[in-house]
Design goal:
This protein has 15 helices and two strands. With about 450 residues, the chain is mainly alpha-helical. It has one domain: Growth Hormone, Chain: A (Up-down Bundle), CATH 1.20.1250. A two-stranded antiparallel sheet has the order 1-2. A hairpin with a 2-residue loop joins strand 1 and strand 2. The protein is globular and about 60 Å long. It starts with a helix and ends in a 16-residue tail after the last helix.
């Protein structure tokens, strides 16, 4: 049965043999091996750099800014939400603009802006300055987020899309694993070297600044330049953005992809934002230093990412061998179980805790929702204005992050630090129900991609 479905997919989307063929992947014409390698590097670098601020921030709140315990959850959530408000305002425009300028320029610029934000972020002297500096971080994150998604969609041919997004999710996991296992533990390592808490926090962010600048240079020389070849005309940014919004009305599967992004992006950020906060609060209550608690959080956060790494490609294969709406159903079922299990853990430091199993399931669910929603979007997005559709996709994700972090932060202060994970488990279950509905009533045949326009046309 699975073999028949895979054969049907191959027949429906035969490879364009003018494109680059590497191993089991067919890439669109015009892309080189260097371009492919740089997109994968950018995938790892983007996730490593963008997740750092939320993961290390609890250390800053406890050791540098001395924020009272009963205010840390709401402040953490509000800062993340404020960042997403900026992203929401910019992300659709950035995606549509990139259809006119190309992805490389905006991608490189995004890392430069993010690096500048990280340089000044630990220098804040008040909550107001912290918010102001976070806006600069948000502008860089908005540019990086939509350019990464657009590059991943642009480069691959339809028949290889699921395997490609599964592979890219492995590199997502590598980036986040590097952040948790290396950058996320730097404050504790600097403490062990005798530096004060404020210095440990500053040095960590300044190392990230240097890494952002180096990444910007590499992307400038390694990514494919120019606008996507499918973009025959050059519509206005607002018109292109409107096209992305209209696709949700025309195609229920794109509407499902937008809804999936709403929760899938929230999944990623809720773990990155509240996981380390949970450990810092629980550790300080048990007479640990914030740095010691961060080391423990970094180790288990790394387990989540290892689980995501090992499962990502398998999920990509599943998405290429089943109906892609079915793939969304499978992904959100796994995520529902993972987040509900993680949210049910009481003391994360207790011996014999189920937290190891919970972290493994959470990692599987985290990567599954990203792969499945991205694969569905890539199948359904019209090639002539993918950037606009990807921009709205990411805007939906940004709105999900904003709501998840605001509500999650309040739940931390009112209910407890593990409450945001239970919340996300319920949200994943809601998307599962929606996906089942689309699969039954509005799935339809997978569309054949439109041919690339020629100059004569």
């Amino acid at each position: 049965m699975a073999k028949d479905k895979a054969k049907t997919l191959a027949e429906r989307h035969p490879p364009n043999r003018n494109g680059l063929h590497l191993l089991i992947y067919w890439f669109n014409p015009g892309y080189t091996g260097v371009n492919v390698g740089m997109v994968l590097f950018a995938t790892a670098a983007s996730l490593a750099m963008m997740t750092l601020v939320n993961f290390v921030q609890p250390y800053l709140l406890e050791e540098v800014f001395k924020i009272p315990r009963d205010e840390q959850g709401s402040l953490t959530g509000n800062l993340a939400a404020m960042q997403e408000i900026v992203v929401i305002l910019l992300i659709g425009m950035i995606g549509a603009l990139s259809d006119r300028t190309g992805r490389r320029l905006l991608f490189s610029l995004g890392f430069i802006v993010l690096g500048l934000g990280y340089f000044i972020y630990p220098l804040a002297q008040s909550t107001e300055q912290l918010i102001l500096f976070r806006i600069l971080v948000a502008v860089g994150a908005a540019m990086i987020t939509v350019m990464l998604s657009a590059c991943l969609v642009d480069i691959i041919q339809e028949g290889s899309r699921g395997k490609w997004l599964g592979t890219s999710s492995i590199f997502n996991g590598i980036g986040v694993l590097f952040m948790g296992a290396v950058l996320g533990q730097m404050p504790g390592r600097f403490e062990d070297m005798g530096f004060a808490g404020i210095e440990a926090g500053q040095y960590t962010f300044w190392i990230a600044t240097a890494m952002c600048f180096v990444t910007a240079i590499l992307l400038h020389f390694g990514l494919k330049g120019g606008p996507p070849p499918e973009v025959k005309d050059r519509p206005s940014v607002l018109k292109n953005l409107g096209r992305g919004l209209m696709e949700a009305r025309r195609n229920p599967r794109i509407a499902l992809a937008y809804s999936s992004a709403f929760i899938a992006r929230g999944d990623l950020v809720v773990v990155g934002t509240f996981f380390s906060l949970w450990f810092v609060q629980a550790g300080v209550d048990q007479d640990m230093t914030a740095g010691q608690a961060m080391k423990k959080a970094g180790g288990l956060f790394a387990l989540i990412q290892v689980s995501a790494l090992t499962w990502a490609f398998i999920m990509g294969l599943i998405c290429d061998r089943v109906n892609r709406t079915t793939g969304v159903c499978i992904a959100f079922a796994i995520a529902s179980v993972g987040y509900i299990t993680l949210g049910s853990v009481g003391d994360p430091f207790a011996p014999g805790s189920i937290i190891l199993l919970a972290c493994i399931m959470t990692g599987m669910g985290e990567t599954s929702t990203v792969v499945a929603s991205g694969t569905l979007l890539g199948q359904e997005a019209p090639p002539h204005y993918r950037g606009a559709v990807v921009g709205v996709f990411n805007k939906s994700g940004a709105i999900g992050i904003m709501l998840a972090t605001v509500v999650g932060g309040q739940l931390v202060d009112i209910v407890g630090p593990s409450a945001p994970f239970l919340m996300m488990g319920v949200c994943n279950a809601v998307i599962l129900v929606l996906a089942i509905g689309v699969r039954i009533w509005a799935n339809g045949p997978a569309p054949v991609p439109e041919p690339t326009p020629t100059a004569a046309e």
